[in-house]
Amino acid sequence: MASALKDIYNVSFINKLISSIKNEYPPFNGEVFTSAVFDEQWEQRTLKERMRHITLKLNEGLPGDYEESLHLLMKAAPHFKNEDLAAIIFPDYVEVFGLEHWELSIAALEHFTMYSTSEFAVRPFILKDLDKMAEQMVKWAVSPHANVRRLASEGIRPRLPWGMALQPLKKDPSPIIPILELLKKDESLYVRKSVANNLNDISKDHPELVLQLAQRWIGSHPYTDWIIKHACRTLLKKGDPAALALFGYLGANDLNIQNLTIENDSIHIGGDLHFSFAVASERIEPTPIRLEYRIEYAKAHDKQSAKIFKITENIISKDRPLFYKKKQTFRDMTTRKHYPGDHTIAILINGEEKARLSFIVR
């Protein structure tokens, strides 16, 4: 059975943390710290709750002076370069205790992000002084280190998953754009993914801004084109005509779905829906298509919700029809619970529904 993500914080990690700190600060009491961390509530805590709990207990054993404690942790952090997510314990310390020590804390966040990520810890600083942090992130965006450049984009995402939302930037994302301009041709895929995700966040509140930016950027560099396509994924799923047109998906006239078939019009929760269909074109010239399917799920209390799944992007012409056989699972997941009732599957070409069938989930 796979371990839960929260189990990255375990006895081995705590022992390594104790050892790395005692190397710099021998008075640190590892036994007291271990006992305080693994208390009666430990097993019930989520990942972020465990992280914050460790941060608070760690502070109890460090020197009372923030600058001295921070210096110790900055020396300890390089030992955790391969710990990835677990090492966010270090920037979390800055988030909790460093908001009133601006210069020290910003330098520490830049240091700590080299060994994990400071993307969550920078957000209270952004809310405290947006203009000052936007200037700082412009500086980070030209760092020689990819992890620091990524922090410039990831830390200021308006809707960062697991992070606090930045409401001022959801309303007005203009301070973000100069940062992304500096990163739009970044050589690091790690950075480019962040830029694309940032723009995708912005597109949910300001689609016209992202489309204007995409139209201005497209064709300037292959890295930038990749960012634009990934950034427009929500707009494409919504069938936004301007986003579809940007990538050559110009309507669905003369494009049709034929022989949409499902193997069984009744399946059970935990099973799979198997379906197949063909795509035909009346156009002689090769035509780009974006192919998706939408499941309209039955939910509790006679409600419904729909989710779109991408199948492919392809080229079709009159003499080159396309055939697909797919399946959709109806196993319950942490992100989706299934309910019995009437469901529908619809096939979309370039954002337009072209065929649908109903089926029952029992």
Automatic annotation (TrEMBL):
Protein name as annotated: DNA alkylation repair protein
**Please, which domain of life does this record's source organism belong to?**
Bacteria
Pfam families per UniProt = DNA_alkylation
